[in-house]
Design brief:
The protein is an alpha+beta fold. It has helices at about 5-10, 10-30, 65-75, 115-125, 150-160, 165-170, 170-180, 235-250, 260-265, 280-290, and strands at about 35, 40-45, 55, 60, 80-90, 100-110, 130-135, 140, 150, 190-195, 205, 210-220, 225-230, 275-280. It contains ten helices and 14 strands. Helix 5 (about 150-160) packs across helix 7. The longest helix has 20 residues, at about 10-30. About 35% of the residues are buried.
Length: about 300
């Protein structure tokens, strides 16, 4: 007698809870008057970013994010938008990474990144009626407001080297990963805000401090959950930032990427806006108290 595949069968309760959470997410955005949208997964060009590699699909690419298409819709006059979709990033695999994963993205016109922080607090409140979750032995209080820590303050508190030195020596990302992230508060979600402009290629500069961008990342229980920013709407500045990113990619011998021309052209009609990408699989990990991403998806690449 052939037995069922136990590796798949044991995930049933988790996948049932996953389905309910995704239904709750969708209900939240519909209730808040967002339009659910679908955009193509296979596109001619992603935004060039040094640390993100796209998966080729013939002479195009699978999307690393739906952001360019969704922002083109905002620029065409659409109101608030959300999408739950599949994204692909080449070479990303760990206990918290999959090369194909589920992303929740939402965009608001006529606002900035501060509104997205409020959205995050409201969404998590909607998903947890008792305002707390327990993940890996840590009780996390989800009641708002959540702490906000600037990158500058995080470096002062937790880094072994100054922020300026980390930027000059290309150690910024490693300091964030190995010195700052492990020391962020675990009992409350926390927003890490105001990234250096060099590390926010699609984000608007902060008017009162033009060396930083209006960008934040959301951490819950020490796990990075979301990346958000006020949108850069200047096509000339955006084109230059893309050129800088592409130049860095080529210096590292990475695959050259085409320029997303329609997106650049249509930035001229994009109103002041803000957008956020939230990892659905990681959110499910938190709500199911699971520390390996493999256990919250139906099939991993290795099981295919």
């Amino acid at each position: 007698m052939i037995e069922p595949n136990w590796q798949l069968a044991r995930k049933l309760q988790t996948l049932e809870k996953r389905a309910r959470i995704i239904q709750q997410i969708r209900a939240f955005f519909i209730t808040h008057h967002f339009l659910e949208i679908e955009t193509p997964h296979r596109i001619p060009a992603n935004a060039p970013e040094l640390n993100i590699d796209a998966v080729p699909s013939a002479d195009w690419f699978l999307q690393t994010s739906p952001e360019l298409c969704m922002k083109r819709l905002l620029a065409a006059g659409y109101p608030n938008l959300f999408q739950i979709c599949r994204c692909w990033r080449d070479g990303e695999r760990s206990n918290t990474h999959l090369p194909e994963y589920s992303m929740l993205e939402w965009y608001r016109s006529h606002c900035d990144y501060r509104q997205l922080m409020a959205d995050c607090e409201s969404l998590l409140s909607h998903l947890s009626s008792d305002q707390e979750i327990t993940w890996q032995g840590q009780t996390i209080n989800l009641s708002s407001p959540w702490p906000r820590i600037t990158i500058a303050d995080a470096f002062l508190q937790f880094s072994s080297i100054p922020l300026a030195e980390a930027l000059a020596t290309d150690e910024f990302d490693s300091v964030i990963a190995f010195e700052i992230e492990p020391n962020l508060p675990k009992n409350k979600p926390v927003f890490l805000i105001e990234y250096p402009v060099e590390h926010a290629s699609l984000a608007r500069k902060k008017t009162s401090a033009p060396t930083v961008a209006e960008r934040f990342e959301l951490y819950i229980g020490g796990l990075e959950i979301a990346n958000a920013f006020s949108e850069l709407t200047d096509p000339i500045e955006q084109q230059q930032r893309f050129r800088d990113e592409e130049s860095q990619r080529r210096k590292q011998g990475k695959c050259p990427y085409p320029n997303p021309e329609p997106f650049i052209k249509e930035l001229t009609t994009l109103p002041p806006s803000a957008g956020i990408a939230l990892g659905v699989d990681r959110l499910i990990m938190l709500f199911c108290d699971i520390n390996i991403i493999d256990d919250v998806v139906s099939l991993t690449p290795e099981q295919l």
